[in-house]
Amino acid sequence: MQWLANLFPNVVSNQTQFVESIWQTLYMLFASGVLVGVIGLVLGVALVVTEPGQVLANAAVYQVLDKIVNVMRSIPFIILLALVTPLTKLLVGTSIGTTAAIVPLVIGCTPFYARQVQGALASVDQGLVEAAVAMGLSPVDIIFKVYLKEGAAEIARTSIVTIISLIGLTAMAGAVGAGGLGDIAITLGYNQFENDVTVAATLIILLMVLVIQFFGDLVVKRLTH
Fold first, then answer.
1. Which residues contact 134 (CB under 8 A, 6 or more apart)?
2. What are phi and psi of 55, to 5 degrees?
3. Which of 14, 58, 126, 129 is deepest in the core (most CB within 10 A)?
4. What parts of the sequence cross the membrane (predicted)?
5. Which H, E and C letters describe the chain, residue by residue?
């Protein structure tokens, strides 16, 4: 492993901290990913079924949800980190650290995923929806047996995009004290001119993206009719 020490001397000398930063990134990614997935899916479904002409059409609810999603998507994430500080302190007791970063990550990424889900479900053949309505299926049955079943491949595809975006956001959150690879790339790599740390952190993030993209593509291929 001498070659590794030669290429990344500062990574090797700070290997405990570097490994910890990887786990912190994975923790933020998993925890926020689960919450974004659940909340974003529900919100995306609600946007589709409450749209005028759909199975649970409600113009007022649709307009409120649509405007909330639009507004939240318009706020730059770096500003959102500061904006939700009071809420973060209220929910987790602190605004600094890995767990605290989950709050802005969820708030920042959920509207994006919800809109992606909306687009995925909107691509479902409306003829299938109309046929389900004609057969007397309930709105809940239509959501699960038509929208989610037929849109599964597109939802999986948009989920990959969202997870990869989350990786980038965790790195950005790390730059303001959330920990993870973004934090170590700034505090050690940039601030202390240890460029090999920055390069190593970047390579790990790229590896995460490639792994997620690879397995995500397999899932999409399996779900595609």
1. none
2. -70, -25
3. 129
4. 26-49, 77-107, 160-179, 199-220
5. CHHHHHHCHHHHHCHHHHHHHHHHHHHHHHHHHHHHHHHHHHHHHHHHHCCCCCCCCCHHHHHHHHHHHHHHHHCCHHHHHHHCHHHHHHHHCCCCCHHHHHHHHHHHHHHHHHHHHHHHHHCCCHHHHHHHHHCCCCHHHHHHHHHHHHCHHHHHHHHHHHHHHHHHHHHHHHHHHHCHHHHHHHHHHHCCCCHHHHHHHHHHHHHHHHHHHHHHHHHHHHHCC
The pair of structure tokens assigned to 11 is 């990574």
Q: Is the dihedral of CA 37, 161, 168, 20 positive or negative?
A: positive
Local confidence pLDDT in tens for the 225 residues of the chain: 666 667 777 777 788 888 899 999 999 999 999 999 999 999 999 999 999 888 888 999 999 999 999 999 888 888 888 898 889 889 888 878 888 899 999 999 999 999 999 999 988 888 888 888 888 888 899 999 999 999 999 999 999 999 999 998 988 887 667 788 888 888 887 777 778 888 999 999 999 999 999 999 999 999 886
Contacts of 32 (CB under 8 A, 6+ apart): 101, 102, 105, 106, 109, 166, 170
One-letter amino acid of 38:
V
Taking alpha carbons only, the member of 146, 167, 141 closest to residue 26 is 167
Cα 207 to Cα 98, 136, 150: the distances in Å are 21, 48, 31
